[in-house]
Amino acid sequence: MIALLKGELEHKTPNLVVLDVNGVGYRVFIPLSTFYKLPKEKEKVCLEVYTYVREDCISLFGFLTKEERVLFEHLISVTKIGPKLALNILSGISSSDLKTAIAASDIVTLSGIPGIGRKTAERLVYELREKIQVMPIERHKAESSAAELTNQILDDVISALTNLGYSKIEAEKAAKDAFSNCGKRGESASVETVLKESLKMLGKWK
């Protein structure tokens, strides 16, 4: 099983990367939380990898941190949660907030993650609460302010949303509304926070 890949970032999109390892290109699926922190294309990167094997396919899932890989493994152990939904969960909420919500049995927060309903949120709590409670919970500060990067943030969020299949009109409206909501709440806007807010809004519009 492949557990780690280190090589040159040949190509990246919000949901997958192609990693060149000694001339061999590996297609690796990633959550948005990993995409945010990837270096530029053609630069070196190291990914923690989970190898998912089925009778009809072998898929690789990559993460920049061991913490996210472990969380991914916990998530796919939950009844009716496969790799795709597990990536959606990690894309819709930070690792620390996810662990906090599960440990606190916060069904409301978990149900607000795109693709997660109340029943799935309840299963997450029931099946993972004890495992999550033994994992450390860390908080991370936002890295940039809205005033400095407003236009770049909106461009990056719109690009990410269109790559995920949303129309440009949907993406632009969601990004602008999400950016505005962050400001109203007094939050420091970043690509990560605005994209997460946009995905929540788009999930409610569907």
Automatic annotation (TrEMBL):
This is Holliday junction branch migration complex subunit RuvA. Gene3D superfamilies: 5' to 3' exonuclease, C-terminal subdomain, DNA helicase RuvA subunit, C-terminal domain, Nucleic acid-binding proteins. Residues 151-206 are annotated as: Domain III. Residues 73-92, 108-127 form the Helix-hairpin-helix DNA-binding motif class domain. One of its GO terms (cellular component) is Holliday junction resolvase complex. It comes from Candidatus Schekmanbacteria bacterium GWA2_38_11. Belongs to the RuvA family. Transmembrane segments: none annotated. The RuvA-RuvB-RuvC complex processes Holliday junction (HJ) DNA during genetic recombination and DNA repair, while the RuvA-RuvB complex plays an important role in the rescue of blocked DNA replication forks via replication fork reversal (RFR). RuvA specifically binds to HJ cruciform DNA, conferring on it an open structure. The RuvB hexamer acts as an ATP-dependent pump, pulling dsDNA into and through the RuvAB complex. HJ branch migration allows RuvC to scan DNA until it finds its consensus sequence, where it cleaves and resolves the cruciform DNA. One of its GO terms (biological process) is DNA recombination. Residues 1-64 are annotated as: Domain I. Keywords: ATP-binding, Cytoplasm, DNA damage, DNA recombination, DNA repair, DNA-binding, Helicase, Hydrolase, Nucleotide-binding. It is found in: Cytoplasm. GO terms for molecular function: ATP binding; four-way junction DNA binding; four-way junction helicase activity. InterPro entries: DNA_helicase_Holl-junc_RuvA_I (IPR013849), Hlx-hairpin-Hlx_DNA-bd_motif (IPR003583), NA-bd_OB-fold (IPR012340), RuvA (IPR000085), RuvA_2-like (IPR010994), RuvA_C (IPR011114), RuvA_C_sf (IPR036267).
